[in-house]
From TrEMBL:
This is Ribose-5-phosphate isomerase A. Gene3D superfamilies: 3.30.70.260, 3.40.50.1360. The gene is rpiA. One of its GO terms (cellular component) is cytosol. Catalyzes the reversible conversion of ribose-5-phosphate to ribulose 5-phosphate. NCBIfam families: PRK00702.1 (NF001924), rpiA (TIGR00021). Keywords: Isomerase. The lineage of its organism: Bacteria, Pseudomonadati, Pseudomonadota, Betaproteobacteria, Burkholderiales.
């Protein structure tokens, strides 16, 4: 199976976690796009979605699923999103699609995080994928120096020759070379650096379940 087919497989499998009659939290990325396509088949059974990005909002609305502002919704039973890396404990690196801040907000508002990913995303230890960090632009270079002090190399994410601007008007640093032995402690520490909006380690908002697309079918990791 191609990687695209594996993504479609887990996107479809995630439908079993959507609770009829309740708002669903929707993440961002190519795997989530497959989930959104599958969600079209049950759009008449849910009131709508809370979305983690402008891109997902547009895709949901295009198939006729109402999208609510997160402030309008108190409780989300389930949040479905992809990952750039996930380990066996459900800790993840996310933000490859630059949507990490809104993803963390919707995840925090949700009772359960269901991660959908193809098997290439499962790792023994987090850190091969450069950690995305959303930063206030004026803090970018200072935050980069703080990562250098930890042995990391931070690169400003670019798009069309300019610094990428997130849905929140901020920039992204992609940090490689980090040894993330304790994801909970790492997330807590980086989160409190001045100018950091969100660090793309999801340890406090980890996945409860991971649906992993493999050549043998969907594996469920709890
Ligand atoms: C976006 C994300 C995505 O979930 C992550 O990058 C995985 O994307 P894809 O499903 O396209 O591999 O965190 O910010």
């Amino acid at each position: 199976m191609t990687q695209d087919e594996l993504k479609a497989l887990v996107g479809q499998a995630a439908l079993q976690y959507v609770v009829p009659g309740q708002v669903v939290g929707v993440g961002t990325g190519s795997t989530v796009n497959k989930f959104i396509d599958a969600l079209a088949t049950m759009k008449d059974r849910i009131p709508g979605a809370v979305s983690s990005s402008v891109a997902s909002t547009e895709r949901l609305r295009a198939i006729g699923i109402p999208v609510f502002d997160s402030n309008e919704v108190e409780r989300i039973s389930v949040y479905i999103d992809g990952a750039d890396e996930i380990d066996h404990r459900g800790f993840m690196i996310k933000g490859g699609g630059a949507a990490l801040t809104r993803e963390k907000i919707v995840a925090a508002q949700s009772e359960r995080f269901i991660c959908i990913a193809d098997e290439s995303k499962l790792v023994e230890a987090l850190g091969r994928f450069p950690v995305p960090v959303e930063v206030i632009p004026m803090a970018a270079q200072r935050v980069a120096r703080q990562f250098a002090g930890m042995g990391g190399v931070a690169k400003l994410r670019m798009k069309d020759g300019q610094a990428l601007v997130t849905d929140n008007g901020q920039h992204i640093l992609d940090v490689s070379g980090l040894a993330i032995r304790d994801p909970l402690a790492f997330e807590s520490e980086v989160n409190q650096w001045p100018g950091v909006v969100t660090v793309g380690v999801f340890a406090h908002q980890k996945a409860a379940v991971c649906l992993l697309g493999t050549a043998a079918g969907v594996k469920t990791l709890n």
